[in-house]
Amino acid sequence: ATDDLLCDFGMPVLHGGVRYNCRVLCHNRHVLLVRPKTAMADNGNYRESRYFTSYRPPSAAGTAAHHQQQQILLPPNLFAQFHGQRHAPFGLHCLALADGTTVGCESCEELWTPRSQHIDMALRGVDIIGNGSGSHHELRKLDARLDLMVGATRKCGGVYLYANQRGCDGGRLYYDGCAMIVCNGRVLAQANQFDVRDVEVITATVDLDDVRSYRASIPSLGIQAADLNSSGGGAGGGCGFVRCDDMALAGHGANITADGTRLHPRPEGSDEGIRLHKPEEECCLGPACWLWDFLRRSGAAGFFLPLSGGADSSATATIVGAMCHMVTEAARNDPECEVAAECRRVCRMDGDDAPPSWVPADPQDMASRVFHTAFMGTDNSSEATLSRAKQLGEVIGSYHLSIKIDLMVEAILKVFQLTTGKMPQFSSRGGTIGEDLALQNIQARLRMVTAYLFAQLLPWVRGRNGFLLVLGSANVDEGLRGYMTKYDCSSADLNPIGAISKNDLKRMLLWAADEYEFGVLRDVANAPPTAELRPIEEGEDGSANQEHTQTDEEDMGMSYAELGLYGRLRKISRCGPVSMYRKLCVTWSHLSPHEVAAKVKRFFYYYSINRHKMCTITPAYHAEAYSPDDNRFDLRQFLYPTNWKRQFAVIDAMADAACAEDIG
């Protein structure tokens, strides 16, 4: 399948007893070059240095010749046995083909470094630069990738081939593909960013004379290229060329396909146009693809979601609905493709008694087979949320249940009363804050127990085999603040929204209401967020058009917009209490210094007393750079001094000084 193609593979390579992450360039079963990676990705979610060592080329020794000295890799014996090859060039080199075309490559993180390898290669006249990448999805991150590639080729000229991993790699990350071909600052081809297919191929025909003409038109580039070639220097020790006199990419016949079709290069100035999703689309489509990978690889029979009718659980349900839309569309477009086969297996329609080449009739048909939702109400629940949950289940197509858990709550409290002789009360009925929280938490935790019971047994109830994966629905802001009950419905097998902010989720709901015609999502997005764990107050009738008076923002003592700002300052801007206070005094200039100080201290108090909850948080789709996920991304301690004695004292002193200055 790859005959006569120049192939660029990524693989680990042992050389001199050291394991390197390498690009391996091959042609017709012959290794042309093994090119090791020079910069490891070790920030955020990446820990590449656990497995690989950054390559360092031989020292310069003062001569350009030494820069270009080739190291020799001795491949395993099977290369000699099957392909007759006993050694291969190893190092920071490029290929020089028989037709004069030059080809180089860099890997993933090297694109993001200050002294990127593609700059050195462009100054040495390399025409085509490839990048095999493993870059995970994060909201608005594709913009940064595009800026780097378009900016690099606009500044230095050349053809940049970008191939990115697609799919879930068995963890919290989703790699969002979006392969691209960029030439002289123009995007010639771009793959989909989100897709349930594992592989998508893009092509473009390029006139390399456009590259050479473009570079020759930039005098400053020519001066720097001449300086580099005369000194033999450059990023990472320079590069030499490996001659490949038996292959060519350009010239007569190179633009003719196997079926005889002649491909024409794009005329100078034409552009594919950059396709970027809005953040609300990313919030839905990325986690949808992530859930599909988990569902098909885990062997589960579907998902189970406690659906409260609020924004968070409705957002999770919407993401599953989007997954069903994407899978159904791919399966119906090609009933024999791999996605269709996986869909039949997951839906349990691959047996001998199933219709051949079965595919879902529509997304609701698929959802009815793999998605299970339940409203777990108590006497504290409103008719408004019950109605919204039911309507959403109907439009998505889920197998929906309404469950009353009051009997379970009463049983637990009866056990407590028989043991201690006391019965806790809500604060509105004379109880203490501790009693009130305990009564709220027992409802929340019983929902988790109920969810796992139904997830285990619903396939049996429906006459099917297998188990269901339980989905959680706690957003990133609530995780940061700790506004959740430990081991409640935030505890699940997977959480597709655990690193997405409340405000982004609301925008996603409004987008999905139009995109998928889930009209009830508008009502969900516009309803005030509420936990519905306290009794409905006197005067509330609990009717379908009346909301519960308990609201999340009032309980938290801060708004979701404020939480998003705190999260970005804490993680992305690396702020502690004092530096956060200083920044917010400028941002919130409409507030007095003492008001800003009170808000900052309130946040860090709750952040510190609840940080331990992040140690047991459900594995969540990574979408935000300020995610508080303790397991892999936000590696900080989970025990803090809650009074922040020194930091809060400094903040108070600064606030007093600012107020005194204003008075003076």
| Classification by helices and strands | alpha/beta
- Measured as a percent range, the helix fraction is 40-55%
What does the largest sheet look like? 7 strands, mixed
| Spatial extent as radius of gyration | 29 Å
In what order do the strands lie side by side in the largest sheet? 13-12-9-8-7-6-14
Can you walk me through this structure?
By secondary structure, the chain is α/β, with parallel strands linked by helices. It has 21 helices and 18 strands. The chain has helices at 64-67, 77-83, 117-123, 141-156, 208-216, 219-231, 279-298, 311-333, 338-346, 363-370, 383-396, 406-420, 433-461, 476-481, 502-515, 520-526, 552-556, 560-572, 577-587, 593-610, 645-663; strands at residues 6-15, 18-27, 30-36, 71-73, 88-90, 94-97, 102-107, 128-133, 159-164, 166-168, 174-176, 180-183, 186-190, 241-244, 302-306, 371-377, 399-404, 468-470. The chain has a 7-stranded mixed beta sheet with strand order 13-12-9-8-7-6-14, covered by helices on one side. A 4-stranded parallel beta sheet has the order 17-16-15-18, with helices on both faces. Strand 16, helix 11 and strand 17 form a beta-alpha-beta unit. Helix 19 packs across helix 20 and helix 20 (593-610) packs antiparallel against helix 21 (645-663). The longest helix has 29 residues, at 433-461. The chain is globular. Mean pLDDT is 87; it is low at 61-68.
Topology (SSEs and partners):
Blueprint: E1 6-15, E2 18-27, E3 30-36, H1 64-67, E4 71-73, H2 77-83, E5 88-90, E6 94-97, E7 102-107, H3 117-123, E8 128-133, H4 141-156, E9 159-164, E10 166-168, E11 174-176, E12 180-183, E13 186-190, H5 208-216, H6 219-231, E14 241-244, H7 279-298, E15 302-306, H8 311-333, H9 338-346, H10 363-370, E16 371-377, H11 383-396, E17 399-404, H12 406-420, H13 433-461, E18 468-470, H14 476-481, H15 502-515, H16 520-526, H17 552-556, H18 560-572, H19 577-587, H20 593-610, H21 645-663
Parallel strand pairs: 6-14, 7-8, 8-9, 15-16, 15-18, 16-17
Antiparallel strand pairs: 1-2, 2-3, 4-5, 6-7, 9-12, 10-11, 12-13
Helix pairs in contact: 7-8, 7-15, 8-9, 8-10, 8-11, 8-15, 15-16, 19-20, 20-21
